[in-house]
Amino acid sequence: MRWFISLALLLIGFGATCPALAAPEVKLPAPLAQLQAPPAERVELGRMLFFDRRLSGDGTMSCAVCHDPQRAYGDGRALSGAYPTTRHWRHTQSLINVAYLHTFLWDGRSESLEQQAEGPIHSSFEMNLHLDFMVEKLRETPGYPELFRQAYDSEITRASIASALADFQRSLIVRDSPFDLYLKGNPDALSNAARSGMALFYGKANCHRCHSGSLLSDQKFHNTGVGETEELRKDTQRRAARHFFQVQMGLERSDRDPGRYAVTHNPEDLGAFRTPPLRQVADTAPYMHNGSIATLEAVIAFYNRGGGEDPDKSRLLQPLELTAEEKADLLAFLTSLSGTVPVVGPPVLP
Ligand code: HEC
Ligand code: HEC
After folding, report:
1. Which ligand is nearest to the CA of 107?
2. CATH fold of 40-169
C-alpha cells in the first residue's frame, strides 16, 4: 500500500514544474520522489537470489550475469547474453530506477517487478529453470528456509522468491546526478553546456515529448524507426529465439521485432517500444531494444535525422537541424544524468 501512495505522489509530481530554475520557456519536471525503502532483510535476501546461479537450470546463469552491477545493471552488449547453447534477440535493460516504473520490458508485457522476476528464471534463453523445481531446490538448500522465515515469516514459495527479487531491485536508485541536484535547487550543478543541452531537450529538440516527467520517460510506447539488424535476421539461433517468442505471444513468425504489438495485437503498435528512462544512460551503451546504436553521439545523430526509416514512425520525430555545438550540448546534458550507481557485490550465499 505504501508503495502505491509513494507512486501516486510521484505521478502527481510528474506534472509539477520548477520555473525558478530555468529559462522561462523550459518546463522542468519535479525532482524524482524519494520512495519508501523496502524492508532490509528482504533486500538482502533478494540480493542473494539475484547473484545465485542455482536459480538456473545448469547452474551457470544468474540475474547478475546479464544485469552486471559494474555496468549499471546492464551487460554492455548489443544483444543480451543468453543461457548456454541459446542466443538472445533483445538488448538487456538497465535496472537503475526500475522502482519508479509501472510497465516493464521493451514492450511493456509485464506490469510489476514481482510478475517480471519469474520471466527470466523459466525462460529457455535466460535461466531455463522450472519454477516449481526452483522452490524445491531452495527449500533443500540449508540456510535459505531460515532466511525466508525471517523475511516473510513463511515457507519458501514462488511468490516470496519473486517478492525478494523485486525488493532488491527497488533498492537500485539513482537520484543524485547533476541534473537531479539542479532540479533540487542547485543552479551550479550543471555546466553551461549541459544547461544549453537541457534547454534543447525541453525545447527545439523535442525530446521531452516522450522522455517526460521526473523519470525522463512517459512509460508509453512509440515507434522511432530503429531498424532491424543483419545479425538478428541471419543468426539462426537468434531467429529461433525470436520466432519462439512470437509463437508464444500468439503471433505469426516474422523477421521483425513486433514491439508493443506483441501485447496489444493492434497494428498501430508494430515497432513501438517503451520510452527508456535516461538516468545513467552514458553508462549503458549500446542503445535501443536491439542495441543497434553504439554511442550517445550516434543516438543524437539518429534523432537529428528525424529518427529511422519506418514509414509508421511517430510524427513527433522530425529532422532537428542541430548545429555541431548544439549536438555537443545535448550530449553534455545526457551525460549529466549520471549519478552514483549503488554497486553491490556478490553476497555470501547459503
Ligand atoms: C540472459 C540475460 C538475462 C538474465 C539472466 C536476466 N535478464 Fe533481465 N533482462 C534481460 C533482457 C534481454 C531484458 C529485456 C527483455 C525484453 O524486453 O524482452 C531484461 C529486462 C529486465 C527487466 C525490465 C527492466 C525495464 O526497464 O523494464 C527487469 C526488471 C529484469 N530484466 C530483471 C531481471 C531479474 C530479476 C533477473 C533474474 C531473476 C533477470 N532479469 C535475469 C536479460 C536478462
Ligand atoms: C516519439 C518519442 C520520442 C522522442 C521525441 C525522443 N525519444 Fe528517445 N526514445 C524513445 C523510444 C521509444 C526509445 C526506444 C526505441 C527503441 O528501443 O527502439 C528511445 C530511446 C532513446 C535513447 C536510448 C536509451 C537506451 O537505454 O537505449 C536515448 C539516449 C534517447 N532516446 C534520447 C533521446 C533524445 C536526446 C531525444 C531528443 C533529441 C529523444 N530521445 C527523443 C522515444 C522518444
Report:
1. 1
2. Cytochrome Bc1 Complex; Chain D, domain 2 (1.10.760)
Task: Determine whether the annotation assigns residue 18 to a binding site.
Answer: no
* Sign of the four-CA dihedral 180, 186, 191, 197: positive
Q: What share of the chain is helix, strand, coil (3-state, %, to 5)?
A: 45, 5, 55
Answer whether residue 8 shows pLDDT above 90.
no
What is the 27 CA–ligand 1 centroid distance (Å)?
33
Q: Is there a contact between 85 and 241 (Cβ–Cβ < 8 Å)?
A: no
- Grid coordinates representing 113? 517487478
Query: What's the whole-number mean pLDDT along residues 331-348?
Result: 96
CA distances, 331 to each of 192, 210, 282, 295, 309 (Å):
12, 18, 9, 10, 23
Point out the ligand 2 atom lying closest to the alpha carbon of residue 271: 18
Domain ranges of the chain: 2-34+175-335, 40-169
Q: Which residue has the cell 529461433?
A: 240
Question: Roughly how many angstroms between the first and final C-alpha of the chain, as a whole number?
Answer: 31
CATH topology of domain 2-34+175-335: Cytochrome Bc1 Complex; Chain D, domain 2 (1.10.760)
- pLDDT at residue 25, as a whole number: 61
Residue 198 CA, ligand 1 centroid: distance in Å: 30
- Mapped to the 3 state alphabet, what secondary structure does 238-300 carry? HHHHHHHHHHHCCCCCCCCCCECHHHHCCHHHCCEEECCCCCCHHHCCCECCCCCECCHHHHH
- Ligand 2 proximity of 273 Cβ (cutoff 6 Å): yes
Q: Which residue has the cell 534543447?
A: 200
Q: From the CB of residue 88, how many other CB atoms can be counted at a distance below 10 Å?
A: 21
pTM of this structure: 0.93
- Given a cut of 70, whether residue 109 has pLDDT beyond it is yes
Q: Is residue 210 a known part of a binding site?
A: yes
Contact status, residue 180 vs residue 31, Cβ threshold 8 Å: yes
Beta bridge partners of 110: 104
Q: Which of 94, 107, 116, 138 to mutate to test the pocket of ligand 1 (most atoms within 8 A of CB)?
A: 116
**Phi and psi for 133 in degrees, rounded to 5?**
-65, -40
